[in-house]
Amino acid sequence: MVPAGGGARRLGGADKPALAVGGRTLLDRVLAACPGAARTVVVGPERPTARPVLTTREDPPGAGPVAALDAGLRLTTAGTVLVLSADLPFLTTGTVDALLAAATEADAPEGSGPAEASAPSEDSGPSAGSHAPETHAGNGGGAVDGALLVDADGRDQPLVAAYRAEPLRRALETLRAAHGGLSGLPLRALLAELTLRRVKDDTAAASYDCDTWEALSAARARIREHGHVLDEWITAVKAELGIELDVDTAALLDLARDAAHGVARPAAPLTTFLVGYAAAQQGLDVAEVSRRAAELANRWAAEAAE
Q1: Which domain holds residue 300?
Q2: Which alpha helices (H) appear in 129-266, and where do they start and end?
Q3: What is the pTM assigned to this prediction?
Q4: Using an 8 Å Cβ cutoff, are 229 and 178 in contact?
Q5: What is the rounded end-to-end Cα distance, in angstroms, of the chain?
Q6: Which residue in 247, 265, 252, 245 sits closest to 293, CA to CA?
Q7: Which pLDDT tens digit goes with each residue over 146-190?
């Protein structure tokens, strides 16, 4: 579930989920972090997305995040529901997996102390860190109703979380009965009704949000930093073309170098295109096709040197 109906007052009312970082909207970047979701619900206005979603609105529109959670939950049937804010450019599947694991792992025995777990380390962009998220039980053990991300400053991020659906429904009904509705209620009121594990975001990347124009500009600059730009670009191209495959960047760059030096500079992009085409058409491994093309470029260069 992606709450995406806020007013974005700090952005002058701009449609924040539709703003782009690296050629992809913030909403599409968040959706890409949870490719295995059985159903995706976006709570907010209709917007074009890279993959199919269900769209609904809180009642009334603009009634706030608690009302948005209630609206989205009505369209879900899963036992565990991911809730992801629509303005997280560096959210990764690793963080999503860590939240799901913390929310659904077997309950720790009472008094056993904080539960600790590790998530797969990711190394594919500015959002990656050298350490996996660290998980702690917020109640010192026992049953939990879900897990949420905690940013590097120790602040809870209830819109970057995985909740067990039934406890979340009960908490929303409790608030509705106590306040006569959900409109305008703060998220802290909802958190007070739930027992949650905390997943630390030590890198301050997964919880990075674009609430201001300055933050958006900084995100756009980060993806172009050396060491990140190629991975970000490849991810964006794959998303645009609707393909999913592992890209051996080093092998392709080596091939481009060999073609440029051994044949001619324009041969580099043409050769990498032909390698990709051949691998797709013949069902071959890209690394193997790259190796064969590189050997050809080296033979070509050797003849010129004779």
Answers
A1: 245-305
A2: 165-179, 187-191, 213-222, 229-241, 249-262
A3: 0.78
A4: no
A5: 64
A6: 252
A7: 999 999 889 999 999 999 999 999 999 999 999 999 999 999 999
Domain co-membership, 211 together with 281? no
- Structure token pair of residue 240: 């645009």
123 and 254 belong to one structural domain: no
What lies within 8 Å, CB to CB, of 295 at 6+ separation is none
Alpha-carbon distance of 265 to 258, in angstroms, equals: 9
Q: Lowest mean pLDDT: which of 96-100, 192-196, 220-224?
A: 220-224
256 touches 276 (CB < 8 A): no
Structure tokens at 186: 């703060």
CA pair distance 35, 206, nearest whole angstrom: 16
> Is residue 138 included in any domain, yes or no?
yes
E strands, the chain, in order: 2-3, 20-21, 24-25, 41-43, 54-56, 80-84, 134-137, 146-150, 156-164, 196-200
**Residue of 215, 214, 195, 198 lying closest to 160 (CA atoms):** 198
How many Å apart are CA 243 and CA 259, to the nearest integer?
26
